[in-house]
């Protein structure tokens, strides 16, 4: 399963990128809310993982905007 992961803390983001594939997840990593929103609208994902305090657009707003355009995959904010 491929997941977009939005995390602005570089060390935590890197540990997620390295650790999740061991659990059979492929990771598309972004460091801002606007990049996360773009990625989630460009590709179809089963789930989305977002940090609440992302720069430029927080995780709640990303979820809100995805829902507004009919994207209803589960999110873990």
TrEMBL record:
UniProt key word Lipid biosynthesis: no
GO BP, one annotated term: phosphorelay signal transduction system
Taxonomic superkingdom: Bacteria
Pfam family, one: Response_reg
Modified residues (4-aspartylphosphate): 51
Gene3D superfamilies assigned to the protein according to its UniProt record, in alphabetical order: 3.40.50.2300
Record PROSITE patterns: RESPONSE_REGULATORY (PS50110)
Residue span, Response regulatory domain: 2-77
Keyword DNA-binding recorded: no
Keywords linked to the UniProt accession: Phosphoprotein
Protein name, entry field: Response regulator receiver domain-containing protein
Protein's organism: Amycolatopsis xylanica
């Amino acid at each position: 399963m491929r997941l977009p992961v939005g995390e602005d803390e570089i060390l935590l983001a890197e540990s997620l990128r390295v650790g999740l594939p061991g659990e059979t997840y492929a990771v598309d990593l972004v460091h801002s809310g606007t990049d996360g929103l773009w990625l989630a609208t460009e590709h179809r994902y089963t789930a989305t993982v977002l940090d609440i305090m992302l720069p430029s657009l927080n995780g709640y707003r990303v979820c809100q905007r995805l829902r507004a355009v009919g994207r209803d995959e589960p999110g873990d904010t």
